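Cont'd.
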Amino acid sequence: MGDIFARLPELGDGLAELYKDLHTHPELSFAEHRTAGVVAGRLRALGLEVTEGVGRTGVVGLLRNGDGPTVLLRADFDALPVEERTGLPYASTARGTDPDGNDVPVMHACGHDVHVTCLIGALDLLAGDRESWSGTVMAVFQPAEELGSGAQAMVDDRLFERFGTPDVVLGQHVAPAPAGWVGIHAGPAFAGSDGLRVTLYGKGGHGSRPETTIDPVVMAAATIMRLQTIVSREVAGGETAVVTVGSVHAGTKENIIPDEAELKLNIRSYTEPVRAKVLGAVERIVKAEAAAAGALKDPVIESLHGFPALVNDVTATARVESVLKATFGEDKVIDPGAVTGSEDVGVFATAAGVPLAYWLLGGIDPETYLKALQAGTVEQDIPANHSPLFAPVIEPTLGTGVKALVAVAFEWLSPHR
Amino acid sequence: MGDIFARLPELGDGLAELYKDLHTHPELSFAEHRTAGVVAGRLRALGLEVTEGVGRTGVVGLLRNGDGPTVLLRADFDALPVEERTGLPYASTARGTDPDGNDVPVMHACGHDVHVTCLIGALDLLAGDRESWSGTVMAVFQPAEELGSGAQAMVDDRLFERFGTPDVVLGQHVAPAPAGWVGIHAGPAFAGSDGLRVTLYGKGGHGSRPETTIDPVVMAAATIMRLQTIVSREVAGGETAVVTVGSVHAGTKENIIPDEAELKLNIRSYTEPVRAKVLGAVERIVKAEAAAAGALKDPVIESLHGFPALVNDVTATARVESVLKATFGEDKVIDPGAVTGSEDVGVFATAAGVPLAYWLLGGIDPETYLKALQAGTVEQDIPANHSPLFAPVIEPTLGTGVKALVAVAFEWLSPHR
Amino acid sequence: MGDIFARLPELGDGLAELYKDLHTHPELSFAEHRTAGVVAGRLRALGLEVTEGVGRTGVVGLLRNGDGPTVLLRADFDALPVEERTGLPYASTARGTDPDGNDVPVMHACGHDVHVTCLIGALDLLAGDRESWSGTVMAVFQPAEELGSGAQAMVDDRLFERFGTPDVVLGQHVAPAPAGWVGIHAGPAFAGSDGLRVTLYGKGGHGSRPETTIDPVVMAAATIMRLQTIVSREVAGGETAVVTVGSVHAGTKENIIPDEAELKLNIRSYTEPVRAKVLGAVERIVKAEAAAAGALKDPVIESLHGFPALVNDVTATARVESVLKATFGEDKVIDPGAVTGSEDVGVFATAAGVPLAYWLLGGIDPETYLKALQAGTVEQDIPANHSPLFAPVIEPTLGTGVKALVAVAFEWLSPHR
Amino acid sequence: MGDIFARLPELGDGLAELYKDLHTHPELSFAEHRTAGVVAGRLRALGLEVTEGVGRTGVVGLLRNGDGPTVLLRADFDALPVEERTGLPYASTARGTDPDGNDVPVMHACGHDVHVTCLIGALDLLAGDRESWSGTVMAVFQPAEELGSGAQAMVDDRLFERFGTPDVVLGQHVAPAPAGWVGIHAGPAFAGSDGLRVTLYGKGGHGSRPETTIDPVVMAAATIMRLQTIVSREVAGGETAVVTVGSVHAGTKENIIPDEAELKLNIRSYTEPVRAKVLGAVERIVKAEAAAAGALKDPVIESLHGFPALVNDVTATARVESVLKATFGEDKVIDPGAVTGSEDVGVFATAAGVPLAYWLLGGIDPETYLKALQAGTVEQDIPANHSPLFAPVIEPTLGTGVKALVAVAFEWLSPHR
């Protein structure tokens, strides 16, 4: 397998350029038109069969190389409505239109540009050395991971009926850990996630006459405070749940009490009983706080997304872990435990009925990270995914990501193993 | 004075058309370009000397008629970022750009279209019967009353240096009271108003990892709840203050904890000690709640507007009250006491150093109003100013407003009195 | 009337001693046994007909002096469960048993000892100069004013059937104003008061396992915060209401989540609509906050007391005001407006169907008061009624109180007027 | 080992009587005088060397039986200020005086009566069959576990200097699991616990004049609500912390705003970083909420207790687990994971520098438990420790607890193993 990596250094500059280009041009979920075009162009240049528009804006590339298993390698490629503040020369100033029709700044704040670049690098190496493996690589470039609905959209667009069912689903996510390190955890590895939109109905009026109104701003504040008690009082210490109100919007002017307030909630959990308990508590609290305000109309709770915990297959994970240790050394492969982040990559594995193995890829300059670790300031000093300051270092992040994908794919595709 | 009103019926339909046109085409503060054009055209048609662009978008019309006092008649003409829900055939579907650059719906939810229409009707009558009075009418069409800064803008644009100093400042505001009625109160009649923008600084991050963030949404909610205690605990029962959080905005997506939250506050008070106490308490609470959240940066509190209580001159008010009673009958003139609404018309009187008399004009269908009064449901059933349902009846509102302006102006202008 | 006051200086020391004795021996509502004994002894020594045990612990003294009107002079005589911190040589260290059976400190923190002393002084003067007046003085020493139920208890004990119906009900209350001053306000002068006990039902358990409980401590906290919004959002700026949670109790140990929490609320209002609105809002909020917590049982709301606003008769008040001005000088008689404090003395007047006039008596050293007034620090520096630091100065408080009672009684009793 | 259990059935009734007697006569921490007397009497009857008054009210019994290791068997014996509501014929109606001097109900709501009974039963068996083992059993009956300070008090009273250092510390705790089952977890098994008393300083006054006060009731409520955000926002999903406000007390009457409020907090955590973070956040929030209220004096935070997580020694735990499986069957021994309850038994092991193995003993009727488990209603239906309804079934609880202690002690004491 050593040979196939021989060409990695020469890819380096090209990958860095590709990465910077993607980073400068982020696009929101289901609006990844330019990104899809760039990806499709690259895949075609490498000789893959390319289909665009799978699940609205997704791209599928097939690299067929004789008999053997089919390995699905997945990279998600949408960005976030975050205003970049990294100060990088290739920082984004892009804007987009969010689902509510607002013009918003856009940034690759979750590092999906890393995922795309690494997968294209891996495909380049695999396409350039067909002697050393056989089978099929199904490269899936997925839209709208941030909405939690992109994987489902591709499955619903008959992904497996059209392109075949893989033997395993593989992928990786860049994380605030030292670049050069990788991490993988068997079993529930990423939390299930539910997104809710809550609309609270008050009764508007003049700001000087609150007694003629039912103030939705106070209703929203009381609701947000009470929602904190779900995690603090209703979830056992040994269980895990996160309830975040990521967005609250009400009103326009200081002296008009508005009619409504809107909250957007995100809930993370690892088990169905906890998930059900938290969702039930949200509904109970939201309704009761509206009643406390004397609301004339019940709040409306809508699901924005909902997907279960990502569960890494135990056997496939053991194989991947062993490959990663052989590739990068024992000390570079960690078990991060279950993380509270969420991922919809599991939707592919569940739909195909095959094992999933999904790992984390460090993206932070190792020296910086270790200094913060020693100082006990990782949380303050190392911007995490979704932060306006999230800025993976280009190397060794990209090189590690490319190597990891190729090495793991070989575990299934190489006849020598 | 009876003669001058003879022509009122024939104005009627024209005034109603003008009112509907203005109502259908509301414009936000300092963006009243079309409105200013309509007003200036009407004033020129009546033979007034017209100057546009006074205080950015204000219009001044001078109706000179020989020697005698100068009476300033004021009508404000901006609208509000409210989405009209009256269902009227002439309801607004207009949109505008708010000070933060957002595209928002616009509605004459405060009834300034009534003020403009009545003043134009009054000028029409006065211009058509120059025999019966002498002196000068200075018609001031003021922008941006809703920002609390339009009157000051006109004064700062050298209103009195350019057009002369009046002997009295007069005006009226439509209110949720029976049409055909008027109300006036001597002394402090409208509350002072302060508008504040509060920016709370948290630290953003992924919604699944609140422990790496300082959540500005929870900070905002805790602040809003604690702000309620100013009125409930810090202002004496016998004093009056209103603290409204009219707007709260933070975040974009459910799974991103934002960096900041923004509140807009409106504060009403009648006395300087209460005003100072409330403003001090707002600052204390906002800072302490940020500290409770562990904020790394103090909140920023900016003034959006600030003007003192409107104080009707005791002598001028007595004269106006007497005229109104003579014009409409004793039983149609009430003393509404001090209201918590605010008005910047006092800025003109203070700057000119002359008395102010400002009255309320009922705008609700009398039968509807009295039915609600008997049922004790005025607050629920009668939409007040700033409500998306605020809908003055055209008559007898407009007729009463025209008559009130002319009759009161005559008190100063007519030689017969 | 000058003659009758001639003996006031010689009473002085005796009154001061009586005051200190009462102050050192305060007793809780309906437990004023020693106080009743002291009062009865004094009245008998002055030659009055004395009846004890009227309305449980009340005392009635009749000073009959020929034909003429009957004037009811009322002093309440119970104390409060407050731990005195005045540091006075005659400070209380007394303890008593509260209605819940707890042993608590007791203090004359509301100044009822002043009321008793002044009334005994006034009776002394009146009894000593029977030449100058005729009629009957009905001295009513009332228990349990602090519970809001003592006046009703005396009425229910057939006060007027047994001792005759007065022509007027008179009385006074010491206040944090300069000693030597008095104040009176016609119309609604003291707020109506409602006392409520709210029991919130959670479900107890181990402090480490909140998920197995329904935490009544958090339920209580959320309820208290939401109750603040009644005054801040539901009562108009021009109306007056006060909602105080004076007591909250739940739990015993840090690591046991208790089953219940108990709140005690006090509500002040001047009008029935506001009172009804506030009481309705309390019930709505308390129930909804329990629902938000997932309580298995509705909260229970019990009335601890409830009496309407004290309304001074306009004519009687005018007579009293005129007497007070004549007695103390125009500059010593103020109109304090309506105060948010409550008083059940109106129960006597309403039950008897006669006018009420009730005034305030300054109790603070005038120099200290005026210094604080100039510094704008009255609220911080001058301890008010119910404070552990409330400490009226003995003179000129007592002398002024005695003179006021005698002078006002003469207004009805003296043939010379 | 079979022989030693032969006598267990004949102990049965006596143990049940002992258990009921202890249950009916619970005593608060450090007031276990009767309990200590009963224990000492039983131990002397079994022939142990008995010392009372170790660590105030603790009892140590030594059962010497030739050479061999010393095994410390520990039972804690204090009860809780909880009012029993089990309705059992042997329910407690006892009362005691809590640390604040209040008279309170007392109940064995944590099941320490089970611990004492089982240990006495085990000593009875061990004392009755000295042939089958050799070494020393050090029976430690510990006071004040509920205060978290009893174990330390015994160590500070020179426990090990006076009675020798054991080779292992063993013990058990009854839990809401099926009787007949036992559970043990290696590593951190019980949370560390901190108890805090927080005194909030407001400024009292009359309930009708909140503007003259700084309301400590509202301060307490805002603080309690904000404390919820520590667990909901500041502790990572994968970490464990519990912050409980078990007690809040302020005020006496509804119409007096008190000077102060007192909170008692309990904090559970498994690691020092989390513990430090939570304690820091409590201090930050408490201070800031006082500042938000305008408090004139900082709150005071006092430690009521503080002890680290209980960590079961991995090797000793493996030995115990193996013995329990051999004794009760594989299916009756579970790994409950780390629980959020706390225990100070680890203080003995740490002070002695020897391994600890501490296990859980099911106490609920198995049929009842399994029915609730199937219905998913364990939390609602099965009262847990500290509940007024906590009621372990006598058998098989006591028999299982006796057997577990003897079998595990034999693991160290029996030469046959």
